Amino acid sequence: MTMRAVLAVVPVAEIDKAIQWYERFFGRPADTRPMDSLAEWHLSELGVVQVFEDPDRAGRTTVNLTVDDLDATLSTLSGQNIPSTDPQLVSGGRQRLALIQDPDGNQLGLIQSLT
Description:
single chain, alpha/beta, 2,3-Dihydroxybiphenyl 1,2-Dioxygenase, domain 1, four-stranded mixed β-sheet, 8 strands
């Protein structure tokens, strides 16, 4: 079996409210709105984050995203009033991780490789 891409789905209670928050998080509007209850951010050719209105499942998802410079990313997010945990060393000291929660409680991990 060959996997070619990843599509992360983040369920939220209210799509319009969530889109406003994710626009601040990603620093840009959604790339596509395939339907009224769905917004997509294309992070790379092989990685997409979908924010989908599904109140029954909202707040139960974790998505980890890799970044080149964790400190710069956290500074930018702080300027958008998006708080995070303090970065922690993980993976035997090979990575740094900071956690963010969206308004529904979904967890977004930001990971920087140190190797």
